[in-house]
Design brief:
By secondary structure, this protein is an alpha/beta fold. The protein is built from 14 helices and 15 strands. The protein is globular and about 70 Å long.
Length: 423
């Protein structure tokens, strides 16, 4: 493969056949295939065998980005607005002071009791079923541990398309197989979920709110439909991602508890700052036992000082979350209205991103860059979904909205994309 003799997508011979051809033990070939799969060079699709991936799984989609020249506004990065992030100095000072008085040592509980209390109270209020609480180094860390706790290489994972680029990278990097589920403004499409689960997908990942990149949020009606599908497939591993916690003013419509194995992940990154690297995880007891057991053999725990700081930030009244959510909502809705006036269909029901389907993704990105706006190419988020671009509204001002909408209209043409009710 490294010499280029095997092309992307080319099937590999069965292990026994290759072993006979090379005159080696089949176990040797099996070990080589396993190593290639773990490194993301090949992928296995059950009885269809193994084939060379289009690119190594460790070649992240983050490399599909636009270099932002000086003087160009960057609305591509997916970051929260720095001005809306809480001050970290006071809470870390308080957490560190407590650490001085009560040092955390080996053998102490891995989860700070106050963080567990605050997190569990909010989960209860949002209707997430009762379950143990764990803390991981962000949402992606949680998802990696959950998938590894239940699945084996070659298993299929149903993911949203378009969806979170990092997750689309992670799944094949674990030796798993991604299968696409379409998304509209109300969340994953039930018919797509039914189809992929009936075809053998072992796991389903759903973004509850602020879906990246489309801004979809699971509605109450959609949640009922998805629960009905999942009840027919009770062995499915369900993972819910609520990274929009505290930046979205829409209610949570969780699917947790519909299947035997489930996990619900809530990150602090968008509301409190990406550098906190902390997510709270709950789920069924078997899943949480496996995750925590493996975590003990690796990092052990997430810094209790960081946990205490987040607990202070999440405590009642520490941050005006409704005001933060309202700011993102105003900026997003203002851009959607401006685009609509230019005849450009766009999506952004919740969160900090707006998604626009375009006929020519590369051309649209280049023309917007020339006009002074750097947007995210849709290739970072797509598998089989149509081309698109993502705009992050976090730092947009009222004066930015009109010029940006006009530039998008010129770059992509009016009437791009389907009606607002579909993605």
């Amino acid at each position: 493969m490294g010499s280029g003799e095997l092309e992307p997508g080319q099937p590999l011979p069965p292990m026994r056949e290759l072993a006979q051809r090379l005159g080696v033990n089949p176990n040797t070939v099996a070990a080589a295939y396993r190593t290639l799969r773990e490194r993301g060079v090949i992928e296995t699709a059950g009885r269809r065998g193994s084939r060379v991936r289009a690119k190594p799984a460790t070649t992240g989609r983050e490399f599909i980005r636009v270099e932002v020249p000086q003087g160009v506004r960057d609305v591509s990065d997916g970051n929260p607005a720095p001005a809306l992030l809480p001050a970290l100095g006071p809470v870390f000072a308080a957490a560190a002071a407590r650490g001085d008085r009560e040092p955390v040592l080996y053998g102490h509980a891995p989860v700070d009791p106050e963080l567990a209390r605050v997190a569990r109270a909010e989960l209860d209020a949002d209707g997430v079923p009762d379950g143990p609480v764990a803390v991981t180094s962000g949402s992606l860390d949680a998802m990696e541990r959950i998938l590894a706790a239940h699945l084996k290489p070659g298993d299929a994972v149903a993911v949203e398309d378009p969806g979170w680029g990092s997750l689309l990278d992670l799944v094949p990097a674990l030796g798993l197989h991604t299968v696409a589920v379409g998304v509209d403004d109300q969340g994953p499409l039930p018919d797509d979920v039914r189809r992929v689960l009936a075809s053998g997908a072992r796991a389903l990942v759903v973004t509850d709110r602020a879906q990246n990149p489309t801004g979809a949020a699971v509605s109450a009606t959609r949640a009922r439909a998805l629960r009905s599908v999942l009840r027919d497939h009770p062995e499915t591993l369900l993972i819910e991602d609520d990274h929009g916690h505290r930046i979205v003013d829409l209610p949570l419509n969780s699917l947790a508890g519909t299947t035997r194995s489930w996990a619900f992940v809530r990150s602090a990154a968008k509301a409190c700052g990406p550098d906190l690297r902390l997510a709270v995880l709950t789920g069924d007891s078997v899943t949480l036992d496996r995750v925590r057991g493996r975590q003990r053999l690796g990092p052990g725990w997430v810094s209790r000082i960081t946990q205490r700081a987040v607990a202070l930030l999440w405590a009642d009244g520490a941050v005006d979350t409704r005001a933060v959510a309202a700011v993102y909502g105003r900026r997003r809705d203002a851009l959607l209205r401006a685009l609509a006036r230019h005849g450009v269909a766009a999506h952004g029901r919740s969160g900090m991103n707006v998604w626009i389907q375009v006929p020519d993704e590369t051309g649209a990105v280049a023309r917007l860059l020339h006009a002074g706006w750097a947007v995210a190419p849709g290739a970072r988020f797509r598998m089989s979904a149509p081309p698109g671009i993502r705009i992050t509204v976090s730092t947009l001002t009222e004066d930015d909205i009109g010029p940006l909408a006009e530039a998008v209209a010129v770059a992509v043409g009016p009437g791009s994309g389907p009606p607002r009710s579909h993605v």
